[in-house]
């Protein structure tokens, strides 16, 4: 029997669309609900206590409202801070997004990698643990940038984003000791793959960017492998605050033809 329950994607903004794209390919018959916590945006400059309190409570209400079969927390900051609490609170599968340090280290030939995320993400002990477990033989250069999140949101609204602006946002990473040998960068914010072209131009030399999108898509496909799907209603984009100008068109380009404010 067909099952109409959606897969729910959650982020502070539109960065989670970088997770939606590969997941659509992995589970093409699933219905998606995307929730942008625009009323709480941005997460990356907030303190841990605020995020730890906000995310589980909000996801609890969203689970009641949309009855998803699975939730993807398509936000590195929310995942590194609140994922255990969300899993304790909800009796459905929860897939988190964590910095792609393991694949970055596996790919690097110079043994110098970057971790580019929000300020709240890159300072987490969880990131320390990932680096110790999977990149112990690497120099790991971290940089947190709220500016890149803003630029990614602007790009999705249809505004121009320049290489120069992007370069200024990552200038401390480029100036860090050993950065000249950095050959791989883990994009530890789901917003940042949306700026792949701009980031490539900002680095100005060959650098490989890795992110969690493909791995999350595979995980979702695995967890739903024996399930049936029914797309009886269109995919839905939900904003907890006002929908920014141009974002409804951006959401439609990712398959969300219906866009509402909660």
Which key terms come to mind for this protein?
12 helices, single chain, 262 residues
What's the short story on this structure?
The protein is α/β, with parallel strands linked by helices and 262 residues long. It has twelve helices and ten strands.
Topology, please?
Layout lengths: L6 E5 L5 H10 L5 E5 L11 H19 L3 E4 L2 H14 L4 E2 L5 H7 L4 E6 L1 H4 L2 H10 L4 E6 L1 H11 L6 H7 L1 H5 L8 E5 L7 H8 L4 E3 L2 H11 L12 E4 L7 H7 L4 E4 L1
Parallel strand pairs: 1-2, 1-3, 2-9, 3-4, 5-6, 5-7, 7-8, 9-10
Helix pairs in contact: 1-11, 2-3, 4-6, 8-10
Would you write up a description of this structure?
Helix 1 (17-26) links the parallel strand 1 and strand 2. This protein has 262 residues and is of the alpha/beta class. The strands form 2 sheets. A 6-stranded parallel beta sheet has the order 4-3-1-2-9-10, with helices on both faces. Strands 6-5-7-8 form a 4-stranded parallel beta sheet. The mean pLDDT is 95. It has 12 helices and 10 strands. It is globular. Helix 1 crosses helix 11. It has helices spanning 17-26, 48-66, 76-89, 101-107, 119-122, 125-134, 146-156, 163-169, 171-175, 196-203, 213-223, 247-253; strands at 7-11, 32-36, 70-73, 94-95, 112-117, 139-144, 184-188, 208-210, 236-239, 258-261.
């Amino acid at each position: 029997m067909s099952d109409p329950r959606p897969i729910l994607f959650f982020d502070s903004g539109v960065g989670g669309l970088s997770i939606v794209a590969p997941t659509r390919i992995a589970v093409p018959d699933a219905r998606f609900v995307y929730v942008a916590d625009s009323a709480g945006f941005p997460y990356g400059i907030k303190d841990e206590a605020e995020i730890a309190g906000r995310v589980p409570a909000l996801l609890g209400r969203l689970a009641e409202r949309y009855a998803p079969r699975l939730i993807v927390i398509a936000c590195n900051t929310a995942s590194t801070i609140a994922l255990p609490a969300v899993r304790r609170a909800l009796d459905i599968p929860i897939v988190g997004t964590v910095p792609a340090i393991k694949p970055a280290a596996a790919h690097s030939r110079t043994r110098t990698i970057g971790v580019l995320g929000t300020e709240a993400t890159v300072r987490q002990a969880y990131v320390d643990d990932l680096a110790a477990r999977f990149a112990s033989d690497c120099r790991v250069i971290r940089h947190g940038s709220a500016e890149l999140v803003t630029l990614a949101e602007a790009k999705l609204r249809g505004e121009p984003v320049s290489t120069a602006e992007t370069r200024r946002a990552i200038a401390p990473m480029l100036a860090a000791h050993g950065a000249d040998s950095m050959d791989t960068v883990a994009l530890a914010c789901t917003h940042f793959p949306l700026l792949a072209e701009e980031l490539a131009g900002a680095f100005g030399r060959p650098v490989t960017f890795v992110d969690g999108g493909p791995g999350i898509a595979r995980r979702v496909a695995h967890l739903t492998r024996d399930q049936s799907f029914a797309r009886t209603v269109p995919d839905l984009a939900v904003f907890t605050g006002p929908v920014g100008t141009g974002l409804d068109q951006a959401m439609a380009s990712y398959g969300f033809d219906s866009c509402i404010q909660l």
